[in-house]
Amino acid sequence: MWVTQPVHCQYLPHDSSPVHSLHSNSQWTAQARLKAAATGKPRLRTRYNLFNSVLLILSTLILALAGCEAAPADSLPETFSSPPTATPILRATIVLPAMPSATPPRQPGSLQIISPLESTQVAGGAELRMALYLADHDGLPVEGATVQARLWTPGGELFSSQACTDRGQGRYLAGLVRLPLRGAGGTWRMVAKATWEDGQQAEVEGMFQADPSLSEMYQSQHGFWVEYPRIFGLGTGFYNLHESGGLHFEDWLYQDGSGYVILDNYRYNALGVTFAALEVHWRQGDLPTDTVAAIAHAHSLAEAGLHHQDPDTALSKLAAETSTFQGRPAWRVAGWGQEYYVTKAAAEYPVEWLIFNCPGSDWVWSLILSTNHPAYMKDLRALQKSFECPPEHQH
Hints:
19% of the residues lie in helices and 40% in strands. The chain has 6 helices and 18 strands. The chain has 3 domains: 2-97, no CATH class; 110-211, Macroglobulin (MG2) domain (Immunoglobulin-like, Sandwich); 214-384, Protein Transport Mog1p, Chain A. The protein has helices spanning 22-39, 44-66, 72-75, 214-222, 291-304, 377-384; strands at 2-10, 89-97, 110-115, 122-123, 127-135, 146-152, 158-163, 165-168, 171-178, 186-196, 200-211, 244-253, 259-269, 272-284, 316-325, 328-338, 348-357, 363-371. A hairpin with a 5-residue loop joins strand 6 and strand 7 (158-163). It starts with a strand and ends in an 11-residue tail after the last helix. The protein is elongated, with a radius of gyration of 47 Å. The protein has a 7-stranded antiparallel beta sheet with strand order 12-13-14-18-17-16-15, with helices on both faces. Strands 4-11-10-6-7 form a 5-stranded mixed beta sheet, with no helix packed on it. By secondary structure, it is α+β, with helices and mostly antiparallel strands.
């Protein structure tokens, strides 16, 4: 492809001779020819003019390519001289080849985060799954790629690094990740990288916010620490017709400073209700000194707590024994409760109390475990062991 660009150049004489046109210059050349023929001398002048004209044209082209930034008289060689009467005004049209159009660079593939997004709402202890979508430079899904996903804590520590599974149609999924109960609050950072055929690569980075865990929340409010029950999978929502459930929690603080916290993991489905609850109670008083006092203390706690207990039905088959907890004297009481929402046959469930003192505390502390599936009692006992007393003299 050629582009036509007009270039205008003007040559000025070195003397003050009258300006002649190109036509006059042609007449001057013709007269020189006649004079040379009459005298029989060689036509040196004609040859000189021919060389001069060729050099002038070449010099003009060079100036045109350079942009004619200087006058020809300033740019031509000093040995070159034009006829004393010649002042040519040249108008040349230079045809220059156009630069070939550059081929647009090939767009790289794109890797997108599907989950978790910036709008994701999670808290410490919650489970999440890193999911991504990979497309090539044409926007088509890429299968068979190697995708690695990494997760960093708010403190900048690598928390999880997983190879994602190809789920087809450009979708890649990592395994479940459970955020820690401690230190989860803040900004989390996720980075993923994909590689596929011909060494193509794509990367993506995202962030999301996490709130402190429920355990941290209660620790900040009441001083103690305990892991909340997450024994079986939570339901899909309260208003799902097939299955619902979640983690129910409630707390109560009395004017004298005593109180309780109920952490209830439950599920509703066609088979009925499944629950596994852990409760923390603290109240003024002394540690029971005998079995009768320990059982009476357990009965008094049921009046305030035991979320699933029928309020019109008393606990039954209670028995108490001395024990230790974290190296301190304690009482263990075992009995049976009755679910209040069962209308036909009374459904009994096991209940266990652990009664003890905390160092530097004036309160009597109690941990209550209850479930309508005895197999979950061992899981509740493991959570019970996670309890940490408040700092001394906080209660």
